[in-house]
Amino acid sequence: MPYATVGNLRIYYELTGREDAPLILQFGGSLFGRQNFSMVNDAFRERFRLLSYDYSGYGQSDCPVEHYTIEGWSTEAAGLLDALGIERVLTHGTSMGGMVGLAFTATYPDKVIASCADCSLARCDTHRRTLFRSWRKMAESGTIDDFCDALTIQAVSADFIDAHPDIFETVRHMVSKNAPYTVRQACLAMETMDLEPLVKDIRRPILFTNGTHDIMTPPRLAASGFSAAQIVDAVPEWARLVEFPDIGHAPLLEAPDEAVQVVTDFFLEALEQEGLAAAAAATQTP
User: In the chain, is it the N or the C terminus that has fewer CB atoms within a 10 Å radius of its CB?
Assistant: First the structure.
Protein backbone atom coordinates (compact mmCIF):
# COMPACT_ATOMS: atom_id res chain seq x y z
CA MET A 1 0.00 0.00 0.00
CA PRO A 2 1.27 3.52 -0.74
CA TYR A 3 2.23 5.45 2.37
CA ALA A 4 4.20 8.65 2.84
CA THR A 5 5.95 9.73 6.02
CA VAL A 6 4.89 13.22 7.09
CA GLY A 7 6.61 14.23 10.31
CA ASN A 8 6.12 11.23 12.56
CA LEU A 9 2.95 10.04 10.78
CA ARG A 10 2.28 7.48 8.08
CA ILE A 11 -0.22 8.95 5.62
CA TYR A 12 -2.09 6.72 3.20
CA TYR A 13 -2.53 8.07 -0.33
CA GLU A 14 -3.58 6.99 -3.82
CA LEU A 15 -2.49 8.43 -7.18
CA THR A 16 -4.88 7.60 -10.01
CA GLY A 17 -5.91 8.96 -13.39
CA ARG A 18 -3.91 10.19 -16.35
CA GLU A 19 -0.21 10.41 -15.61
CA ASP A 20 0.26 13.17 -18.22
CA ALA A 21 -2.54 15.34 -16.82
CA PRO A 22 -2.61 18.16 -14.24
CA LEU A 23 -2.85 16.92 -10.65
CA ILE A 24 -5.79 17.56 -8.32
CA LEU A 25 -5.13 17.17 -4.58
CA GLN A 26 -8.41 16.15 -2.95
CA PHE A 27 -9.48 17.17 0.56
CA GLY A 28 -12.31 15.00 1.91
CA GLY A 29 -15.10 15.94 4.29
CA SER A 30 -15.34 15.64 8.05
CA LEU A 31 -17.37 12.43 8.13
CA PHE A 32 -16.63 10.64 4.84
CA GLY A 33 -12.95 11.55 4.42
CA ARG A 34 -11.61 10.84 0.95
CA GLN A 35 -14.68 8.71 0.18
CA ASN A 36 -16.52 11.98 -0.48
CA PHE A 37 -15.22 11.98 -4.05
CA SER A 38 -16.14 8.39 -4.95
CA MET A 39 -19.14 9.44 -7.05
CA VAL A 40 -17.18 11.85 -9.25
CA ASN A 41 -13.67 10.39 -9.39
CA ASP A 42 -14.23 8.49 -12.63
CA ALA A 43 -15.31 11.67 -14.39
CA PHE A 44 -12.36 13.67 -13.07
CA ARG A 45 -9.89 10.92 -14.01
CA GLU A 46 -10.78 11.40 -17.67
CA ARG A 47 -8.96 14.75 -17.62
CA PHE A 48 -6.87 14.89 -14.46
CA ARG A 49 -4.48 12.98 -12.24
CA LEU A 50 -5.91 12.61 -8.73
CA LEU A 51 -4.09 12.54 -5.40
CA SER A 52 -6.49 11.19 -2.78
CA TYR A 53 -5.36 10.62 0.78
CA ASP A 54 -6.54 10.00 4.33
CA TYR A 55 -5.93 12.85 6.76
CA SER A 56 -4.25 11.78 9.98
CA GLY A 57 -7.02 10.32 12.11
CA TYR A 58 -8.87 8.94 9.08
CA GLY A 59 -9.03 5.71 7.14
CA GLN A 60 -5.70 3.93 6.73
CA SER A 61 -3.47 6.76 7.94
CA ASP A 62 -2.07 6.92 11.47
CA CYS A 63 -4.71 7.96 14.00
CA PRO A 64 -3.05 9.57 16.99
CA VAL A 65 -5.33 10.62 19.83
CA GLU A 66 -4.73 14.34 19.69
CA HIS A 67 -6.43 17.65 19.02
CA TYR A 68 -7.06 18.05 15.29
CA THR A 69 -7.48 21.40 13.54
CA ILE A 70 -8.24 22.65 10.05
CA GLU A 71 -4.90 24.46 9.95
CA GLY A 72 -3.09 21.34 11.17
CA TRP A 73 -4.54 19.22 8.37
CA SER A 74 -3.54 21.95 5.91
CA THR A 75 0.07 21.81 7.13
CA GLU A 76 -0.04 18.01 6.85
CA ALA A 77 -1.09 18.31 3.18
CA ALA A 78 1.91 20.51 2.47
CA GLY A 79 4.11 17.89 4.09
CA LEU A 80 2.54 15.16 1.96
CA LEU A 81 3.34 17.05 -1.25
CA ASP A 82 6.91 17.58 -0.08
CA ALA A 83 7.26 13.89 0.75
CA LEU A 84 6.02 12.93 -2.72
CA GLY A 85 8.18 15.51 -4.49
CA ILE A 86 5.17 17.35 -5.92
CA GLU A 87 5.64 21.10 -6.32
CA ARG A 88 2.27 22.53 -7.37
CA VAL A 89 -1.29 21.23 -7.59
CA LEU A 90 -4.88 22.08 -8.19
CA THR A 91 -6.93 21.43 -5.04
CA HIS A 92 -10.53 20.33 -4.61
CA GLY A 93 -12.02 20.12 -1.14
CA THR A 94 -15.59 19.43 -0.10
CA SER A 95 -17.34 20.36 3.15
CA MET A 96 -14.65 20.33 5.86
CA GLY A 97 -12.22 19.55 3.04
CA GLY A 98 -13.13 22.88 1.48
CA MET A 99 -12.13 24.54 4.72
CA VAL A 100 -8.82 22.66 4.72
CA GLY A 101 -8.38 23.66 1.07
CA LEU A 102 -9.09 27.30 1.90
CA ALA A 103 -6.44 27.27 4.64
CA PHE A 104 -3.99 25.46 2.35
CA THR A 105 -4.52 27.93 -0.52
CA ALA A 106 -3.99 30.95 1.72
CA THR A 107 -1.03 29.50 3.62
CA TYR A 108 0.86 27.76 0.79
CA PRO A 109 0.21 29.79 -2.38
CA ASP A 110 3.47 28.60 -3.96
CA LYS A 111 2.07 25.05 -3.93
CA VAL A 112 -1.27 25.98 -5.52
CA ILE A 113 -2.28 26.59 -9.14
CA ALA A 114 -5.99 27.03 -8.34
CA SER A 115 -8.49 25.66 -5.83
CA CYS A 116 -12.13 24.73 -5.51
CA ALA A 117 -13.75 24.84 -2.05
CA ASP A 118 -17.08 23.04 -2.26
CA CYS A 119 -19.67 23.59 0.50
CA SER A 120 -17.25 25.63 2.55
CA LEU A 121 -17.05 28.59 4.92
CA ALA A 122 -14.36 30.43 6.86
CA ARG A 123 -16.11 30.73 10.22
CA CYS A 124 -19.37 29.29 11.52
CA ASP A 125 -22.20 31.54 12.58
CA THR A 126 -23.99 30.62 15.81
CA HIS A 127 -26.48 28.45 13.91
CA ARG A 128 -23.78 26.33 12.26
CA ARG A 129 -21.62 26.21 15.39
CA THR A 130 -24.59 24.81 17.28
CA LEU A 131 -25.28 22.34 14.47
CA PHE A 132 -21.75 20.94 14.55
CA ARG A 133 -21.82 20.83 18.34
CA SER A 134 -25.03 18.80 18.19
CA TRP A 135 -23.35 16.39 15.76
CA ARG A 136 -20.45 16.01 18.19
CA LYS A 137 -22.78 15.36 21.13
CA MET A 138 -24.69 12.73 19.14
CA ALA A 139 -21.45 11.04 18.11
CA GLU A 140 -20.24 11.08 21.72
CA SER A 141 -23.47 9.50 22.94
CA GLY A 142 -22.81 6.37 20.89
CA THR A 143 -26.03 6.54 18.86
CA ILE A 144 -24.10 6.41 15.60
CA ASP A 145 -27.03 5.28 13.44
CA ASP A 146 -29.21 8.14 14.69
CA PHE A 147 -26.31 10.51 14.10
CA CYS A 148 -25.88 9.30 10.51
CA ASP A 149 -29.61 9.53 9.81
CA ALA A 150 -29.71 13.10 11.12
CA LEU A 151 -26.72 13.95 8.97
CA THR A 152 -28.41 12.49 5.89
CA ILE A 153 -31.65 14.43 6.16
CA GLN A 154 -29.67 17.64 6.73
CA ALA A 155 -27.35 17.01 3.78
CA VAL A 156 -29.69 16.13 0.90
CA SER A 157 -33.20 17.00 -0.20
CA ALA A 158 -36.37 15.05 0.53
CA ASP A 159 -36.77 14.38 -3.19
CA PHE A 160 -33.26 12.92 -3.40
CA ILE A 161 -33.95 10.67 -0.42
CA ASP A 162 -37.18 9.40 -1.99
CA ALA A 163 -35.31 8.65 -5.22
CA HIS A 164 -32.38 7.02 -3.38
CA PRO A 165 -33.74 5.30 -0.24
CA ASP A 166 -30.46 3.41 0.20
CA ILE A 167 -28.69 6.69 0.98
CA PHE A 168 -29.13 6.10 4.73
CA GLU A 169 -27.20 2.84 4.63
CA THR A 170 -24.59 4.38 2.34
CA VAL A 171 -23.93 7.21 4.79
CA ARG A 172 -23.71 4.81 7.73
CA HIS A 173 -21.20 2.67 5.83
CA MET A 174 -19.01 5.62 4.83
CA VAL A 175 -18.99 7.21 8.28
CA SER A 176 -18.05 3.84 9.83
CA LYS A 177 -14.76 3.85 7.90
CA ASN A 178 -13.40 6.56 10.20
CA ALA A 179 -12.62 6.53 13.91
CA PRO A 180 -15.43 7.91 16.13
CA TYR A 181 -12.84 9.95 18.02
CA THR A 182 -11.77 11.67 14.80
CA VAL A 183 -15.37 12.36 13.79
CA ARG A 184 -15.89 14.15 17.10
CA GLN A 185 -12.63 16.04 16.69
CA ALA A 186 -13.62 17.12 13.18
CA CYS A 187 -16.89 18.54 14.49
CA LEU A 188 -14.95 20.41 17.17
CA ALA A 189 -12.48 21.70 14.59
CA MET A 190 -15.31 23.19 12.53
CA GLU A 191 -17.03 24.60 15.61
CA THR A 192 -13.96 26.51 16.75
CA MET A 193 -12.15 27.44 13.52
CA ASP A 194 -11.78 31.02 12.33
CA LEU A 195 -10.15 31.24 8.91
CA GLU A 196 -11.19 34.83 8.26
CA PRO A 197 -7.69 36.17 9.07
CA LEU A 198 -6.28 33.96 6.30
CA VAL A 199 -8.63 35.29 3.62
CA LYS A 200 -6.52 38.38 3.00
CA ASP A 201 -3.61 36.07 2.13
CA ILE A 202 -5.42 34.36 -0.77
CA ARG A 203 -3.33 34.93 -3.89
CA ARG A 204 -4.45 32.05 -6.08
CA PRO A 205 -7.73 31.61 -8.00
CA ILE A 206 -10.31 29.92 -5.80
CA LEU A 207 -13.83 28.81 -6.70
CA PHE A 208 -16.53 28.36 -4.09
CA THR A 209 -19.37 26.01 -5.03
CA ASN A 210 -22.44 25.86 -2.80
CA GLY A 211 -25.95 24.54 -2.88
CA THR A 212 -28.39 27.40 -2.48
CA HIS A 213 -30.47 25.39 0.01
CA ASP A 214 -27.51 24.05 2.00
CA ILE A 215 -28.29 24.32 5.72
CA MET A 216 -24.86 23.08 6.87
CA THR A 217 -22.57 25.46 5.00
CA PRO A 218 -24.80 27.91 3.12
CA PRO A 219 -23.22 30.47 0.79
CA ARG A 220 -24.48 33.23 3.08
CA LEU A 221 -24.39 33.19 6.88
CA ALA A 222 -25.63 35.27 9.78
CA ALA A 223 -23.46 38.14 10.99
CA SER A 224 -21.42 35.99 13.39
CA GLY A 225 -20.09 33.83 10.55
CA PHE A 226 -17.82 34.38 7.55
CA SER A 227 -19.24 32.77 4.43
CA ALA A 228 -18.17 31.91 0.90
CA ALA A 229 -19.99 35.01 -0.36
CA GLN A 230 -18.08 37.19 2.12
CA ILE A 231 -14.77 35.69 1.01
CA VAL A 232 -15.60 36.55 -2.60
CA ASP A 233 -16.47 40.10 -1.53
CA ALA A 234 -13.17 40.36 0.40
CA VAL A 235 -10.89 39.13 -2.42
CA PRO A 236 -12.92 39.50 -5.64
CA GLU A 237 -9.80 39.46 -7.79
CA TRP A 238 -9.10 35.87 -6.68
CA ALA A 239 -12.39 34.30 -5.59
CA ARG A 240 -15.69 33.53 -7.27
CA LEU A 241 -18.89 31.78 -6.22
CA VAL A 242 -21.09 29.37 -8.18
CA GLU A 243 -24.38 28.27 -6.63
CA PHE A 244 -26.24 25.10 -7.56
CA PRO A 245 -29.97 25.90 -7.29
CA ASP A 246 -32.48 23.55 -5.73
CA ILE A 247 -29.96 21.36 -3.88
CA GLY A 248 -28.48 21.23 -0.42
CA HIS A 249 -25.07 20.31 0.95
CA ALA A 250 -24.02 17.68 -1.59
CA PRO A 251 -23.42 18.94 -5.15
CA LEU A 252 -21.07 15.99 -5.76
CA LEU A 253 -23.97 13.66 -4.94
CA GLU A 254 -27.05 15.60 -6.01
CA ALA A 255 -25.68 17.26 -9.16
CA PRO A 256 -22.46 15.35 -10.00
CA ASP A 257 -22.34 16.02 -13.76
CA GLU A 258 -22.83 19.74 -13.33
CA ALA A 259 -20.37 19.90 -10.44
CA VAL A 260 -17.67 18.12 -12.42
CA GLN A 261 -18.18 20.42 -15.40
CA VAL A 262 -18.08 23.62 -13.34
CA VAL A 263 -14.88 22.59 -11.53
CA THR A 264 -13.23 21.29 -14.70
CA ASP A 265 -13.93 24.50 -16.60
CA PHE A 266 -12.53 26.57 -13.74
CA PHE A 267 -9.36 24.51 -13.53
CA LEU A 268 -8.79 24.62 -17.31
CA GLU A 269 -9.18 28.40 -17.25
CA ALA A 270 -6.67 28.66 -14.40
CA LEU A 271 -4.16 26.43 -16.20
CA GLU A 272 -4.40 28.56 -19.33
CA GLN A 273 -3.93 31.75 -17.33
CA GLU A 274 -0.84 30.22 -15.72
CA GLY A 275 0.63 29.65 -19.15
CA LEU A 276 0.23 25.91 -18.74
CA ALA A 277 -1.60 25.69 -22.04
CA ALA A 278 -0.05 22.35 -22.95
CA ALA A 279 -1.28 20.76 -19.74
CA ALA A 280 -4.73 22.25 -20.24
CA ALA A 281 -4.88 21.12 -23.85
CA ALA A 282 -3.91 17.58 -22.86
CA THR A 283 -7.06 17.30 -20.79
CA GLN A 284 -9.25 18.09 -23.77
CA THR A 285 -8.84 14.67 -25.35
CA PRO A 286 -9.45 12.00 -22.70
Answer: N
